[in-house]
Amino acid sequence: MKKIFSLFVLFISVTAQAEPFTKASPDSLEQATKQMGALGKAMTDGIAILKSGDLANISAHSKHFSSLVESGKRQFGSTVFEPLGSCFAAGNFSRSWWNAQLAAAQNGGVEKVPGSIKDALDEYQEKRDDCLQSADPVMSAKSDAESDAELKKKLGGGRECLTVFTVDPETKEVIAQPKPAHCKS
């Protein structure tokens, strides 16, 4: 009962945000840090749960991973194309890691797809790092400044010199919007 209550409290604390975060901020960094901590703890706890062989606990832990992924989706969006989507992706890869662990356990400790556990772990770690960087307002601003400096060298301007597409309201065709005059191309 104590374990169920602590999972419930963790779930509530991680899902407090009603609207998805759309940019780096102190609040998004705080929630991303909590989310990544919860995912890391679930992965660490998963090893002991698998070793116990208790099917009820294994099933409950699988559901816990799914709830963490859903929490990430609600808080950070559902694709990596969203500003903080790597936070959601980290959850997906942690669940993939868990599923690969389960598959190996069911196969006598041998991976059905060699390297799947390590691949999922590597992807999780990459997305976790991306998540924390994109949620951190200081790191995000630094990354944007570096990106703008590179764009200014290549295009004669910053992000405003990237090609932006829109739909023409009359013809309903996709068209490129004109760039400012100072842009090279």
Radius of gyration, whole Å = 21 Å
User: Would you count the extended β strands for me?
Assistant: 2
Global shape: elongated
How many helices? The count is: 6
Poorly predicted runs: 4-17
Mean pLDDT: 84
Class from secondary-structure proportions: mainly alpha
Measured between the Cα atoms of the first and last residue, the distance is 64 Å
- Return the string of H and E elements: HHHHHHEE
Task: Note the beta-strand portion.
Answer: under 5%
What does the largest sheet look like?
2 strands, antiparallel
User: Which range best describes the helical content: under 10%, 10-25%, 25-40%, 40-55%, 55-70% or over 70%?
Assistant: 55-70%
- Enumerate the strands of the largest sheet in spatial order, edge to edge or round the barrel: 1-2
Polypeptide structure, described:
It is built from six helices and two strands. The chain is 66% helix and 3% strand. It has a two-stranded antiparallel sheet with strand order 1-2. The chain starts with a helix and ends in a 9-residue tail after the last strand. The protein has 185 residues and is mainly α. About 8% of the residues have low confidence.
